[in-house]
Amino acid sequence: MKIKFFLTIALACLISINVSAQDNGLNPVYKVQLGDITFQKGEASKKVTASKVLSVMADVIEGRVTDIHNEEYIPLAANCVKEGLTHVRRLQTVEADEVEDAKFLVTATLTDIAASRKVKTYDRKDSKGREYTEAKTYYGAIVTVALNFKNLQSGELTTSTISGRCSEYSLAKSADEAIRTALDELAENIYEYYNEVYPIRANIIERGTEKKDKTKELYIDVGSRFIGEDVHFEVFVVGQVAGRETRKQIGRIRVRETLGDDISLCKVQKGGKEIKAAFDKGDAIIAISTD
User: What is the pTM (predicted TM-score) of this model?
Assistant: First the structure.
């Protein structure tokens, strides 16, 4: 079963003559064409769920778990894959007529769209001490996708498997609600994963508030074009050895406020003393996003 999206994801590369002023040259944005999204049950699905087999085997044997495979959710799952990719900071959707400039071709295989229902019984006593049995029904779900990124220039292929889950002990009142919760998490996990694969790199351009021997705030040259408030960065001093870049981590910062397309004010969360010492020495300092 196939669903085709002719999705491509936009580029603002170093080599482009149209690199915007707010791009500090460190964060190329890639065009990616999203190809087929397919659903494949079987071995791929079993591999994804193998780690859970022992923990639920007794429940399955005793009939307390019912697996519900829902192929009617494939269009919704495919849309969640699309949504997840379009929220990656360094990926941007473009029109189909720009496909020829794409950096990557992405195909996706949905290997799990399943819900489970578990009924558990509990021995209770009422206010008068009389014993009774209470039955509770729990719903859980998992949606898993394998995303294949093919570099259209080099032919290199990388595959990442990402899942969204709804715990069997969540507040889901039905299998449908559990699957939709898992789908929402899938989209979120996709963009969080690829934001880490393609992090934002910023130059620390100016010190801000300082107290005694510590830097409390500083400014970076990345703003609202790529990030919002509360994004975290690790801070590094950059050097050179034999013509190669070296990095030494000295702290951690959080974006407090974006002040424009290409500038943000950040709060120093860790390493204020080390960051101030690096400023005082005139070291080159960069920051790389972690979320």
Answer: 0.76
Work out the angle at residue 255's Cα, subtended by the Cα atoms of residues 92 and 227, and round it to the nearest 5 degrees.
5
- pLDDT tens digits along 158-193: 999 999 999 887 888 888 899 999 999 999 999 999
The secondary structure of the chain, three-state, reads CEEEEEEEEECCCCCCCCCCCCCCCCCCCECEEEEEEEECCCHHHHHHHHHHHHHHHHHHHCCCEEEEECHHHHHHHHHHHHHHHHCCCCEEEECHHHHHHCCEEEEEEEEEEEEEEEEEEEEEECCCCCEEEEEEEEEEEEEEEEEEEEECCCCCEEEEEEEEEECCCCCCCCHHHHHHHHHHHHHHHHHHHHHHHCCCEEEEEEECCEECCEECEEEECCCCCCCCCCCEEEEEEEEEECCEEEEEEEEEEEEEEEEECCEEEEEEEECHHHHHHHHHHCCEEEEEECC
C-alpha 222/C-alpha 263 separation (Å) is 5
- pLDDT given for residue 182 in this prediction: 93
Averaged pLDDT score across all residues of the chain:
81
- Read off the tokens for 165: 């889950």
The tokens for 40 are 């494949």
The CA distance from 216 to 198, in Å, is 27
